[in-house]
Amino acid sequence: MKPVPILSEEQQLKIVEAIVKAEYRTSGEIRVHVEPKCKTDPVSRAVKVFDRLEMYDTAARNGVLIYLAYETRVCAIIGDVAINEVIPAGFWDGILADMQSAFAAGSFTEGIIGAVEAVGDALSEFFPYQSDDVNEQPDEISFFDEDEEDEEEEDPDEED
User: How many Cβ atoms are within 10 Å of 6's Cβ, its own excluded?
Assistant: First the structure.
């Protein structure tokens, strides 16, 4: 596990356990992404992270990303197209509010786990577990930030 100032290895393992447990109740896929700063609107950034993680690469298009930027204190939850077709507008707002309340109380890990559990509950309603379900996305927390992406996009061999 990658060392992150906001999450110990033990806390990361607890979050991964929550993801695994939540995904046992649904055919949906849940991912958590954590980075220090968000330089733009958190939903826009979450969409970019969703694409970079290739979360659209699921058979049922039912992945959900929980995005957090701990230094700028923003978060977002976004779902893939199949989820967005069945959930009402503002569906994630209550989960986000609960997560932000936990963060404000200093319960960062618990806030993430609560969000994972709530997303799992929602997904199980619309996308129940199937007997032939396979895990299409990694359960580990992803960590990278916009600065790392900018560095990757620059090609030092490229001439102007």
Answer: 13
What single-letter DSSP state applies at residue 113?
H
Model confidence pLDDT, tens digit, residues 76-89: 999 999 999 998 88
The alpha carbon of 61 is separated from its chain's Cα centroid by a whole number of angstroms, namely: 15
Q: What CATH number has the domain bearing residue 46?
A: 3.10.310.50
Contact between 100 and 75 under an 8 Å Cβ cutoff? The reply is yes
pTM, entire model = 0.89
Domain with 106 in it: 9-127+138-144
55: Cβ contacts below 8 Å, ≥ 6 apart: 29, 31, 63, 65, 80, 137
List 67's β-bridge partners, or say none.
Answer: 33, 76
